[in-house]
Amino acid sequence: MADNIIFKSIPEQIEEHLRRDILSGSLAPGQPLREQEISERFGVSRGPIREVLSKLTQQGLVVAEPNKGVRIASQPSASVRPLLVELRKNIELFVLDSIFDKITKKDLKTWEKNLASIKKACKKGDKASLVEHDLLFHKAIIQSHDDKDLFTLWHPIDLRML
């Protein structure tokens, strides 16, 4: 049986690159993101870049201000961070409680693979890879639940935490 191959659109690929750069700290809070520079970096027109910046804004990773442009969002304040941690934990615990009796060997294998990648990234000191695999690990848990709305709730919280 052939593996299902999933192709990502150009905007999805660019979004993934920019998200990785933001979450790894390669792009610092407050740093401006200019459409022209990003379009030149990825060799695409500004249309897909606008789409990507809109998505990253919805995810809370960048902030768009009229007449000022788009900047990397600042980190959550010290008073908000504990709330984000608690929300993420509650959603993940809810999911684990709900799926505990339904966890498959495939689920465990996926989680173990992600944990191994996290350990490898830690040993190498590769922050970008660590963030990416941490996100994949928790995402796999959330997506194990039948109710896909939970992912919609969890995802922006997780991104803001990272």
Description:
This protein is mainly α and 162 residues long. Helices cover 64% and strands 6% of the residues. A 3-stranded antiparallel β-sheet has the order 1-3-2. A hairpin with a 3-residue loop joins β2 and β3. α2 crosses α3. The protein is globular. The N and C termini lie far apart (37 Å).
Output the radius of gyration.
17 Å
Low-confidence stretches: none
Distance between the amino and carboxyl termini = 37 Å
Fraction of helical residues: 55-70%
Overall pLDDT level: 89
Inertia-based shape? globular
Number of strands: 3
Oligomer: single chain
Encode the helix/strand succession as letters.
HEHHEEHHHH
Number of helices: 7
Structural class designation: mainly alpha
**Main pleated sheet:** 3 strands, antiparallel
Spatial strand arrangement across the major sheet: 1-3-2
Percentage of β-strand residues: 5-15%
